[in-house]
Design brief:
Blueprint lengths: L1 H5 L2 H8 L22 E2 L9 E2 L1 H12 L5 E11 L2 H8 L4 E5 L4 E2 L2 H6 L2 E4 L9 H12 L28 E4 L2 E4 L2 H4 L3 H17 L1
Parallel strand pairs: 2-5, 3-4, 3-6
Antiparallel strand pairs: 1-2, 7-8
Helix pairs in contact: 4-6
């Protein structure tokens, strides 16, 4: 699931430049039974299956080695992931993301590792893989050199939802849609003031 995404575009180039790297550890590889079972029915009843603690703990142990890595469990019950979270985490050299499945992970994993849970939004998905990709992308773009120029990070610039490119006049559906004259004026100071005003208005809404 990860390979197709991580081998594309910006993240692929960043990996080739050795700015970032990715490694994967499957909890099933750390099980002891012949079927490599990684989950079981929950104590106390309820639907679904719960992932065993020990294979995940062993996988994290292998991933960390002797490094002082930051470990995060992805969970819909976790703290909301934001751009500020991404900036903070991006300062860490080594990061381990634990992606759960089914009903979730045995709670003893969190207690033993003393780690935080993070959620990518107020919704539930079938597994932690997509949230992990979102977090990887968001963190990676905060690392200097990944986007080519640090100025490429949109949130560091004054921007609004209003932007234009060629052609100057777009003919569509029998109507003409022109780029506002201010954006053609070359007066970058006034353009930035306008964008900031639009941005502040959007935030106020």
């Amino acid at each position: 699931m990860f390979e197709s995404y991580l081998k594309e575009s910006i993240l692929r180039r960043a990996k080739e430049k050795k700015l970032i790297d990715f490694k994967f550890y499957n909890p099933r590889d750390f099980t002891i039974d012949k079927h490599h079972k990684a989950d079981d029915r929950p104590y106390g009843g309820g639907p679904g299956m719960v992932m065993y603690a020990e294979p995940i703990l062993k996988a994290v142990q292998k991933a960390k080695g002797k490094k002082n890595a930051k470990v995060i469990i992805l969970s819909p019950r976790g703290e909301q992931f934001t751009n500020e979270t991404a900036k903070k985490i991006s300062k860490k050299k080594d990061i381990v993301l634990i992606s759960g499945r089914y009903e979730g992970i045995d709670s003893r994993v969190k207690k033993i590792l003393k780690v935080e849970e993070i959620s990518v939004g107020p919704f539930v998905v079938t597994g932690g893989e997509l949230p992990a990709m979102l977090i990887i992308d968001s963190i990676s773009r905060q690392i200097r050199g990944v986007l080519g120029k640090i100025e490429s990070i949109e949130e560091e610039r004054v921007s609004s939802g209003e932007m234009y490119t060629r052609p100057e006049i777009l003919n569509w559906g029998g109507k003409k849609y022109a780029v506002p004259k201010l954006f053609l004026s070359g007066n970058h100071r006034e353009i930035e003031k306008y964008k900031k005003k639009e941005k502040d208005f959007d935030l106020a809404k």
